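Q: Please design a sequence for this.
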């Protein structure tokens, strides 16, 4: 059974590779079903701890029709949100790592199961990325929800 959008996702992803044919070859022959792609040309990746990342993805689903691509690593301990190039070098956020120009990202073949990273949101093939301002808002909302009811703990009088 073919997964809708896989072909366009593959075509979009390989445009980031220095050698698109080598990328395809790696996906076909690598036993893990992954390839290394450079960040910073078509996209950067913001890497968020798993719990906050999943909650952020849930909030994003309420804010936008469709977020940009999102990767999860083994055990969902980290999520990677694909954002416009240059975002990683400008991002100021505690606990969030950025992969931008000069970084390489392990990317699984879209729609194929691997033993490590997996797609939470497949690329749409059109280059849709998550707006960093919307991602930041979603992260704040997710963190606030995780902290509990407003005013709990900090500065409350008995």
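A: Design:
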């Amino acid at each position: 059974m073919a997964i809708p959008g896989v072909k366009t996702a593959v075509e979009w992803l390989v445009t980031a590779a220095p050698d698109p044919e080598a990328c395809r070859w790696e996906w076909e022959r690598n036993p893990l079903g992954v390839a290394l792609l450079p960040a910073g040309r078509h996209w950067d990746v913001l890497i968020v701890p798993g719990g906050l990342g999943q909650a952020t993805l849930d909030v994003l689903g309420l804010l936008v029709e469709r977020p940009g691509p999102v990767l999860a690593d083994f055990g969902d301990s980290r999520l990677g949100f694909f954002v416009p190039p240059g975002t990683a070098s400008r991002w100021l956020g505690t606990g969030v790592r950025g992969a931008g120009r000069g970084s390489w990202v392990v990317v699984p073949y879209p729609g194929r199961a691997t033993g490590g990273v997996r797609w939470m949101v497949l690329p749409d093939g059109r280059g849709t990325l998550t707006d960093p301002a919307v991602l930041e808002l979603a992260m704040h909302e997710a963190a606030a929800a995780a902290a509990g009811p407003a005013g709990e703990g900090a500065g409350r009088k008995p």
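Q: Thanks. Anything notable?
A: The two ends are 60 Å apart (CA to CA). The chain is about 35% helix and 20% strand.
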